[in-house]
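Methods — Computational structure assignment.
A single polypeptide chain was analysed. Its primary sequence is given first, followed by the predicted tertiary structure written as structure tokens.
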Amino acid sequence: MKKVAVIMGSDSDLPVAQKAADVLKTFGVPFEVRVMSAHRTPDAAAAFADKAEENGFGVIIALAGMAAHLAGAFAARTVIPVIGVPVKSSFEGMDALLSTVQMPSGIPVASVAVDGAKNAAYLAAEILALSDRDLHDRLVSYRREASEEVAAKDAKVSAMFKD
């Protein structure tokens, strides 16, 4: 199975990145977590992106706040899917969100909500599941269990309001 790279622009993003790591662990998806900056370590970020496919990565999750150019910097250098996670740091994360989603045509970055690292990891797993039937089945099972949990909660709440 291909790996997922979880790249933070700063170690201050670690609490958000941990949420992605937890989801990836749940599904048995191999991953690496790194700190690289589009602005402070552009050469390291470029070198990582240039070798990502060769090094066995199938998806890159890039977390960054403020100017949030990290996801775009990776997407500009590889055709591996890049998922941007805008991190709340200033302006309630709107600056990071807009920096992440406003990509030029031909250099796509998938985006999730501000601090939405969990959904980034679920999306990364779904992308990898396109070529991994076991992972696909684990995701289907997870969705079924989540649905059953909601149905049980619905029954409990409905029962509270019956005459």
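Note: The mean pLDDT is 96.
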